[in-house]
């Protein structure tokens, strides 16, 4: 929706410039006037390119961070399962519940839907995770090895829970509205001048439309990269699937 609004504003500005071209007095379109407008437009285009580049870079950083955290969490879940396996057969029930909970989380993430992702923050999901932690805390180690394994397992659980909350908090980032409005205004000015000084024909209109689509697509890309868990561009769940296949062995 945001990308569509950007496209309408940018391409509409180009059409408005083309409309005004035939209605402005001729001295407004003199070589001197065009030269000054080109210089001013070049300055605005430079600022817009810098801001857009920074937004793409920042969004890509958010996406890469979420992906790295997801891979790291998957590795810690496997390590946690192996800790329980080394503890002894009395952890078999806990390992089964771990695999069931992890499969449920992966199913919610695979939907790439904001409504499904909201269930990760539901009281029911949180209670299942805390119940698993309470079962680990209730273990009664009989040897120093089991005591060390239990302590390490609890530490891994705390790290996984902390990373989980961090990923959920990062999952709903977006371009600040003020920055987005300013950027769209700059793009509209640029495209307005394109339409103002370009002759009106089918080729020019098609080129301006493609450029407007490209500009709005860049905004769409930034918004999608800022939401790595849902939308069109999402993090890969291959590490989670691999982890799920290893649990309980």
Draw up the topology in text.
Elements: H1 2-21, H2 31-87, H3 92-110, H4 114-117, H5 123-137, H6 144-170, H7 177-197, H8 202-225, H9 238-246
Helix pairs in contact: 1-7, 1-8, 2-6, 2-7, 2-8, 2-9, 3-5, 7-8
Outline the structure in words.
This protein has one domain (1-249). It is rod-shaped. The chain is built from nine helices and no strands. It has 249 residues and is mostly helical.
Please describe the structure with a list of short key phrases separated by commas or semicolons.
single chain; 249 residues; mainly alpha; 9 helices; 79% helix; rod-shaped
Please give the largest β-sheet. none
Distance between the termini: 46 Å
What is the domain total for the residues?
A: 1
Instruction: Quote the average pLDDT.
Output: 86
Strand coverage percent? under 5%
- In total, how many beta strands? 0
Compact summary:
With 249 residues, the protein is mostly helical. The protein is 79% helix and 0% strand.
